[in-house]
Structure prediction request, 367 residues.
Amino acid sequence: MPDLWEIFLVFARLGLISFGGTNVAELERALVLHHGWIDARTLASGFALGQLMPGPNMLAVTHYGYAAAGPSGALAATLGFYGPTALLSAAAALLWQRHSAHPWALALRNALLPFGGGVMLAGALVLARTSVTSWPAALLTAAAFLLLWRTRVNSAAVVLGAAAVGALLGL
Amino acid sequence: MTSTAPATPPEATPAPARPTPLSLARMFVGVALSGIGGGLPAHTRRALTSRGWMTEEAFAETFTLAQLTPGPNAVNLAAMVGARLAGGLGALASVLGVLTPGLLAMVAASALTLEQPGGLPAALQSALRGAACAALAVLLTAALPVVRVGWRVRGGPTVTLAAFLALGVLRLDLLPVLLVLVGAGLLIHRPGGRHA
Prediction:
């Protein structure tokens, strides 16, 4: 079993290199390919569970930490993932109040935004490789996407609905 | 959030009331509980403005900034709001408030799904596979607005596609890709360079 400090550090790194949201591609590289703490199936199901939890939807990291080392692993992963970036954010908020008009601040923003978009698309591709393995799964994904994109329905409701469909179809 | 608006934030308007760290923690527990299925920033905005703790303008600026810092946006937003309204302790209280309900729920869910001897029943496994398909759709709907905003930045489409190919298809290590692509972006947008 990996030690807790190592879990903390790995998740701290993952938090600090997620831009514009989540970085599923790098999560998979680190947790599945490099450390072997979880498998691809756990990655996908943990991500799904994260959508159902109250609060930030990257609580999937808590699930991954649990899979790696039980409840204390869950805590180490959560603190590692959210702690350092929250600290950085609080500091940035205070700095930004003074320096937001600086030209380099704008340049950094323009450099990070398109990069963040690519990171998120890469993460979607990685999840799709595990989740979309059959025609029914592809149809279910497409239906969920249309529902979320076109209507204002709550995403937890869509995830629960898809779970029911999955159980009925025996995906 | 627009792609081109230069940062000309209004001077931080003093909030009408100064919340304590404890009241911030309580507010963010409520935000987390109402945020099942996402939409945390929207719930945060409503909670803050209805209490008169932050103006719309101050919230919009803080929200944009939270998108730019690395890490999970909703928690960064809580840290920033807490820091602005009540300093370091406020940031700590806000982050703990927004994380705790989900942390407890997820530990319980993990214990249920991961510690079954002999694995999960087949029906539950199928249900999780179905949920994973929908979760992928959630990720896509979250990604598209980000892609759209980045697309409008000069050189944006190239950087977005290059990041997608390097990380998603070639599975390269993130740090070198980040250095190269964000470095290129900084070069394109360096102050004093050609303006679009």
Observations:
- The two ends of chain A are 31 Å apart (CA to CA).
- Residues 60-99 of chain A form the longest helix (40 residues).
- Chain A touches chain B through 111 residues (CB under 8 Å).
- The mean pLDDT of chain A is 87.
